[in-house]
TrEMBL record:
EC number: 1.5.1.38
Keyword Flavoprotein among record annotations: yes
Family the UniProt entry places it in: Belongs to the flavin oxidoreductase frp family.
EC class of the enzyme, as a word: oxidoreductase
UniProt entry keywords in alphabetical sequence: Flavoprotein, FMN, NADP, Oxidoreductase
Domain called Nitroreductase: residue spans: 10-163
GO terms for MF: FMN reductase (NADPH) activity
Keyword Acyltransferase: no
Name this polypeptide is given: Oxygen-insensitive NADPH nitroreductase
């Protein structure tokens, strides 16, 4: 173990923050740490919108299904997959971008994920807490309009940041043997391993909620993955110039 690995293993989402503001200098440093992540073919396809305006913040909270911390966190960032700048780069060289490929959607979205995780880990290393907000995709078209996003830019998720005003336990992850396979995909032991893991997740929820929530991981997945998953996403992304070919 070393300090970096210890920091990574101590991650837990923070949803309650103190009123202590986060200096803009720190936010800039975190964004720079995000930029330092690897980026597919150097496309650098992540754009961050820092939302300070209180009216926009409350609208984003509504878009996220009323998650209070979206309005309350000292900092709220919207991380966007952005191919618009790459289009401009082509135009600067009198070239026309050949856009709309699903591959470009994947690379831009992966770029955002890597950028975001670098930013989040950097924040945690400075004593800040964070939670990702995929909930903004509940009303993604409204979010895009609110932030005046052009074509070829889409909001992937938000991040709430601030100094933690809670200290939740680390949430147990699946055992490595389910996640790491050797040479080929072999899931013959997965069911039994998951059944054991289920017990540790229900212990975690019981402890964290003082007995109010008792749910296993497989129950949680069954509840979520049998419902519709934001079915408006495909049409929205096509409308914005993604997933066309
Ligand atoms: C892309 C992404 C979107 C998420 N969206 C939300 C969200 O909208 N609201 C929320 O409270 N947590 C959200 N989370 C946090 C997850 O629920 C959390 O990471 C997961 O339950 C594991 O818990 P931990 O982060 O405390 O280890 C999101 C996480 C990710 C990676």
């Amino acid at each position: 173990m070393n300090q970096v690995i210890e920091l990574l293993n101590s991650h837990r989402s923070i949803r309650k923050f103190t009123y202590q503001p986060v200096a803009q200098e720190i936010i800039n440093t975190l964004v720079q740490a995000g930029q330092a992540a690897a980026t597919s073919s150097f496309i650098q396809a992540c754009t961050v919108i820092q939302v300070n305006d209180s009216n926009k913040r409350s609208q984003l909270m509504e878009c996220s299904g009323g998650q209070a911390y979206v309005g309350e966190a000292p900092v709220f960032l919207v991380l966007c997959a952005d191919m618009q700048r790459n289009k401009l780069a082509c135009e600067m060289n009198d070239a026309e971008i050949n856009s709309g490929y699903t591959e470009q959607f994947i690379t831009a979205t992966v770029d955002v994920g890597l950028f975001a995780q670098n930013l989040t880990v950097a924040a945690e290393s400075l004593g800040l807490g964070a939670v990702y907000i995929g909930g903004i995709r509940n009303q993604i078209a409204r979010v895009a309009d609110l932030l005046e996003l052009p074509d070829m830019v889409y909001p992937v998720f938000g991040i709430c940041l601030g100094y933690p005003d809670q200290n939740p336990e680390v949430k147990p992850r699946l055992p490595v043997e389910v996640v790491l396979k050797q040479d080929s995909y072999n899931d013959s032991n997965d069911q039994q391993t998951i059944a054991e893991y289920d017990k540790s997740v229900s212990d975690y929820y019981r402890t964290r909620t003082g007995g109010n929530k008792d749910m296993t991981w497989s129950e949680q997945m069954s509840g979520m993955l049998t419902k519709e998953a934001r079915p408006h996403m495909k049409a929205f992304l096509k409308d914005r110039g993604f997933l066309l070919k």
